[in-house]
Amino acid sequence: MPLESLPSFFTGVSDSSWSHFDLNIASGVAIFFGGQAAVSVFALRPLYGRIWHGWYNAPGCHAIVWALVRTLLQGSSSSYSERLALSLGLDGKEGPQYIASRSGTVMPHTRHLAYVLNKSNWEGKECKPVPVGQRNSPTPMQLIIVDFKKKVLTENDTLPPRSSRHSSLSMIASATSIAACAICASVEDWLSFKMILLGIISSGITSFIMSIGHITLERLKPAHGAPRGDGMLLSDSRIVILRGNEEDVNAVTKGKLRLELKGGGYTVLLCAFIALLQVTLQVVFMPFGSLPGQLMFLLSLLVSGVCNLYLSTNEDDVKSSALIALLNTPEVKTYQAHSRAAAATLASLALCWESSTPPRQVLRAIIPIRQRAWKAWSEFIVENIREKRTHYVWGENKSTKRLDEEESKLLHALIDDAHAAHDQYIKDHNIT
Questions:
Q1: In the list 61, 137, 281, 342, which could disulfide-bond 337, CB 3.0-4.6 Å?
Q2: Which domain of life is it from (predicted)?
Q3: Contact (Cβ atoms closer than 8 angstroms) between residue 311 and residue 318
Q4: Count of C-beta atoms within a 10 Å radius of residue 391
């Protein structure tokens, strides 16, 4: 179809046989779909930090209004920045159990950054999982060693978290909304034109405000003379080893995230008012638009809603990519242990090789060493680490003599796992 005939085509639509379709209700109701996705994407704005994100007519703004109003209505026992981070899901997730290997402290639950670390899909050459062991155990585990070589910055010195994942997706929604505006203008449906433009501007302003927001990390300072914070985050299928100063590890296990906006609570109120104005005017006036205008309005909502839904389904991936920047780029090494025994061996080496931490303490937190085969196996682990042996050694002792045939088979399988893990760790860390 020639470009010059495009306006006449849409002008003729309202007079065609399609005119019996009534989109008045649909154009009003559609605004209220996708509320949760809209809030999720709204919360990602400060993680992207791009002021051109969000300039499109999007559904679900009523949910953003409620999230912002809830932030303002909550008690004054905490700052608005803390409440805002909780309302938008930037903080508040419960992390896994943490066991400090040096102090013996056990935290049944940790805070949001520990949750992010435990759920993160680590990427990059250094983070590619190294397979350890040959046995196909029903309980494989991933072990990640995180070394804090640089100081984790907090408060006003917090590094700006940034992610580039899926960042170009907003351009599709923006282009669709602008094209919908142009088509409405071509058919001289100025009401629909204004309503779509209202959505673009209001969403753009609130997104701009959020994109220049500053996420800060608040942590508790340890007591003077506290030992290093080495320990492990322990979940069913993953162990995350944290090695560094107590203050840096505390940033992960106990740190609180804040979302600071210029203007403070008044800016939150302004964003809520703008979003509420958009929803109210679109609900009231959009049903009076022409059929082509309503179709364009619904098209802009559909494309924007799909983009929001896609970004919200990848929310954890985007957040982990950005929030890990808060930790000042720690060194990461990942292992894919084929068995829990191999993972326990790696954890013991990572936490006990260069410290006086008893390996048995680490092993007991991961595996059931009360059984005779496991107990005999743990004795070999403890001895090899205590003697700082670069080649794994095992033999007969009092514990092995008490084992029956089945337990001896299990012990040999466990020793093979430990041997593979020991050799791999020594090789990767250049220990001689």
A1: 342
A2: Eukaryota
A3: yes
A4: 9
- What residue ranges do the domains of the chain occupy? 3-91+166-217+256-323, 340-432
Q: How confident is the model at residue 150 (pLDDT cuts 50, 70, 90)?
A: confident
Longest dimension (CA), the chain: 95
d(CA 365, CA 97): 11
With 0.85 as the threshold, say if the pTM is over it. Answer: no
**97-100 and 231-234 as β-strands: parallel, antiparallel, unpaired?**
antiparallel
Within 10 angstroms of residue 386's Cβ, the number of other Cβ atoms is 12
Cβ neighbours, 10 Å, residue 423: 14
Residue 34 has which token pair?
Answer: 């996708």
Structure tokens at 327: 């930790």
β-bridge partners, 242 = 146, 231
d(CA 257, CA 324): 12
Structure tokens at 79: 């700052």
DSSP state at residue 160: P
Q: What is the mean pLDDT of residues 151-157?
A: 76
Q: How far is CA 156 from CA 47, 211, 223, 348, 397, in A?
A: 17, 17, 22, 36, 57
Binning pLDDT at 50, 70 and 90, where does residue 5 land? Answer: very low
User: What is the chain's Cα-based Rg?
Assistant: 28
Which amino acid type is present at position 79?
Answer: S
Residue 335 β-bridge partners: 130, 143
Is the C-alpha dihedral spanning 203, 209, 215, 216 positive or negative?
negative
Q: Which two tokens stand for residue 161?
A: 């978290």
Q: Which helix (H) or strand (E) holds 46?
A: helix 35-48
Place of tokens 């068995």: 339
Q: Which residues of 159-195 are buried (b: 16+ CB within 10 A; e: fewer)?
A: bebebebbbebbeebbebbbebbebbbbbebebbbbb
Residues 102-116 pLDDT 10s = 888 889 999 998 998
A 10 A CB-CB count for 148 gives 22
